[in-house]
## 1
Amino acid sequence: MLSKRLCHLLLAALVPALLAADPPWIVRSQTGMVAADSPEASQVGAEILEQGGNAFDAAIATSFALAVARPESTGLGGGGFMLAYLAKERRFVALDFREMAPAAATRARYEKLTTGAGDGPPPSIYGGNAVGIPGQLAGLVEIQRRFATKPLAELVEPAIRLAETGFTVDEHLQRACREALADYTNWPQLKERHAQLYESLLGSGEPAKPGDKLKRPDLAKALTLIAEQGPDVFYRGPIAAAIVRAVRIAGGEMMMIDLEGYRVREREPLRATYGGYEIVTMPPPSSGGVCLLETLNILSLVRERIQYPPGWRGSGYPRNLIQALKHAFADRARWLGDPDFASLPVQRLTSRAYAEELLARNAVTPDDFGSTQLPDDRGTSHFCVADKDGNVVALTETINGVFGSLVIAEPYGIPLNNQMDDFTTSAGKPNLFGLIQGEANAVGPAKRPLSSMTPTIVLKDNRPALVLGASGGPRIITSVLQVLLNVIEFDMSMEEAMTAVRLHHQWKPDEVYFDREPPAELAEWLKNAKPACKISTQRKTGVVQAIQFLDDGTFVGASDPRRGGRPAAPAR
Ligand code: GLY
């Protein structure tokens, strides 16, 4: 059996010995839990639970707080996905509030822009043409309307306070600012084009330091307007006008009618079994769920058939994991896009029969697109919420790259996303995350770009056993997959599951990435494997937030220590 022993040899080589006490990024409670990548946002959500709110109330308040405290990753200028479990009705709901492309976003426009950009900043990443119509607020409003118990204004209020009094800067924000400033150094024209971001959040080259308090009075204004007048201020009123103005000044073509036309979509969650567990996850326009299930199906067949000898060296486990990921990411590139515009073979890709076929074929030969630098995890934010009544929320939201497009909707201090880069805007060329994307994901008016976000809930005996998700572009998928397997396959504690070494393979480039130096024996084995597996020199992975549900009713919240989040629990 693919058991603890194998796993501990393979993945846990770098796991520190079990500590007597939990580290600060793990919190236990009997009353509920919020695990976000910002301690202040987790606290906001936990306080809403404490005041009698349900998991949806807490999720909305947490998300507004993240808009204040994680400007580098998420906010009103972005979009996201929510997967939730409604305990009373024993059903799942998946909401899609991903950005949509504006009416002017034609393929011809992006081909021309890309050709004209030369060595300058890529137009799908920087500036007005990078910006998709934000869906974040529409999503939160929809969650409030259908599932919350408290009025929107009450759920926005803690974020207004946080923006007015200031949030605590951490190392993650400081690193993100440095990364953005490096772009300003590379392309000095950005300083003129995107002066607002440079002068505000980037501190004119001297960003705030960890421990500093950073106030966001401009964003507080926008949040107050939303609390007082509702979401129309954002989609039809003064904030809409500010977004359109900012995008157009930055060279884009967004119109008021684009914002007015934004719609949240409900999607049918994807489901599959693995061992004695049921996995419920996000369907397209995220690729996350499809890739997760395709990979798990292959590994599940392997697990049923192969009696691994002890130790990774003699086993095929790392090879099977990498091969499964290559199949999934190859299919992502070929087949996936916006389900509203193309019929996607989701059923086939996530079927056991297809996994059998792939396992028998056992080969993917990547074309030679060359290797490309993956950006570090800066954009995107995931959080999980669970309440005492059994409701569970997994919500991943993003403005995509670090500070999105660098465009700020003034005077409201809202960083606007660069989600247009998640489309195929230049056929055959890798995007910001080094992903090759296909025809099904071609840019076009009103389409939603393919995502990797993977909010996921795992059931055991029809009850939630684990909820998780991640930030980190395509490494979201591999991070969710490995933490999930660490818990349900390898029986690791949350601490072990989070800190175990992680690998990532996305088909192209044909390299395996680790989050840190891989164990020497494993590196050697990969180098000598047939076909040989090139190990990237980049050391990166995603950032996972999770809650595990123990049989005795304990919620174990965990915020990946790679980013400095802290879970928080209601006091009662
Ligand atoms: N923008 C990152 C993702 O949606 O996967």
## 2
Amino acid sequence: MQYENQAVTKIYAGSDHAGFALRGRLVAHLRSRGRQVEDLGPPTDGSSDYPTWAAAVARAVRDDAGSFGLVVCGTGLGVCIAANKVRGVRAVDAWNLEGARQSRGHNDANVLCLGARLVAEADAIAIVDAWLETPFEGGRHARRVALIAAIESEETRQESQQDSP
Ligand code: RB5
């Protein structure tokens, strides 16, 4: 089956140990549906720190225009906080289908975070599918997303002012 939202060119996936099993199932699901997925790891379910994997996925998305990210930890919260530290990333922890859809339609979210300990596998699959199939609506939402980018720029400007003697 081909998805409607063909603007999605590639999906980068990652997790910590808590999200390891669900990440594997989501990657397999997406590939079985014809999606191009690059699984960034980790390769085993040994204990690992969620910011490391969230940053790897977020930076891959930042560096590959049009790509999306999928990161899984126990709650989806830690990876979401970490991923949002990367410029240009709009990561969301969507708990249900409507949240997933609106995060794409209104916020142009480019990284989806999920909590393996809080969301059932079948629900997670449905959330990922809905998220990927929903296009950004643009219009007034584009102005608001641009205002998010403006916050990043202003933070950088203020930081560079503080650094200069
Ligand atoms: C790991 O135990 C857990 O803290 C992590 O997966 C995540 O839920 C953090 O936000």
